[in-house]
Amino acid sequence: MNNELTPAVPAPSFGTPPFDAGSFDASHLATAELAARHQLDQVMAMVGVDGLVEALAQPFLLAKVDQHAAAVRESLTAAGKPVDAISLAGYARSVIAVHQRHGRPLPTPESVDWSAADWTALRLVAVCHLADAAGAL
User: Fold this and answer.
1) Share of the chain above pLDDT 70, in %
2) What pLDDT band is residue 30 in, cutting at 50, 70 and 90?
3) How far apart are CA 75 and CA 97, in angstroms?
4) I need a labelling partner for 118 at 20 to 30 A (CA). Which of 24, 108, 127, 137 fits?
């Protein structure tokens, strides 16, 4: 399965048996990391910056973002994934894909009423909050 937002990366070549550790090319990991950071930057521009600024100004919103961040962290941990750029970008892609499948427009800085932000906006702000805390931005 491939996503148009995720670069297609060929599987690394491990040589012939027995495994040749010298032939492993980790450059695809760096490419995936860069792609993930780029996606997180896009989410940050979409809702993260405004959402985090509003959350710092409104304690009730910060509490909601913290609850969503805890749920994201728990979901990644339960799946055996680290809270890093690649996992957070994948999670954000999933949230965005589900939102779009329901035919709803993506949130933008102008479209979100932070006093009544929907689940998608809160979840994406939570992803940005975790990415920032993990140094993934």
Assistant:
1) 79
2) confident
3) 17
4) 137
Which H, E and C letters describe the chain, residue by residue? Answer: CCCCCCCCCCCCCCCCCCCCHHHCCCHHHHHHHHHHHHHHHHHHHHHHHHHHHHHHHCHHHHHHHHHHHHHHHHHHHHCCCCCCHHHHHHHHHHHHHHHHHCCCCCCCCCCCCHHHCCHHHHHHHHHHHHHHHCCCC
How far is the CA of 22 from the CAs of 14, 26, 27, 29, in angstroms?
9, 11, 13, 16
Q: What is the mean pLDDT of residues 33-52?
A: 96
Q: Phi/psi of residue 134, each to 5°?
A: -85, 0
